[in-house]
Amino acid sequence: MREQAPELTAGLLARVLAGAPTVAEAERRRKMLGRIRERQAADGCREAVADLSRCAQFAPFDALEGFREMVGEVRERSRGGPRT
After folding, report:
1. What b-and-e string marks burial along 16-40, b requiring 16 or more CB atoms within 10 Å of the CB?
2. What is the DSSP secondary structure assignment for residue 6, as one 8-state letter?
3. How far is the C-alpha of 45 from the C-alpha of 62, rounded, in Å?
4. Cβ proximity of 3 and 20 under 8 Å
5. Hey, where are the domains in the chain?
6. Roughly what angle, to the nearest 10 degrees, separates helices 10-18 and 23-43?
7. pTM for the complete prediction?
8. How many CA atoms, within 13 angstroms, populate the side-chain half-sphere of residue 27?
9. Out of the domains of life, which is the source (predicted)?
10. Cα gap 59→79, rounded to integer Å
């Protein structure tokens, strides 16, 4: 499944900057989002691609108690399933 990332429009940028808790954070966000916007202008929007092989990087956490249950809950939420 491919999902295209949203283009950083002026309205979206304004909403992100308005949510900054401090002036310094707003400036940091403005600079970072400006670099992202430049990259989008040069290369276009990227697409998010689900890659099942990525899950292997989390295998070491499988030994943690309750990890499988937590992953199952997150998976259900991402699919629009029941929330607990």
Report:
1. eeeeeeeeeeeeeeeeeeeeebeee
2. P
3. 34
4. no
5. 2-48, 54-78
6. 160
7. 0.45
8. 3
9. Bacteria
10. 22
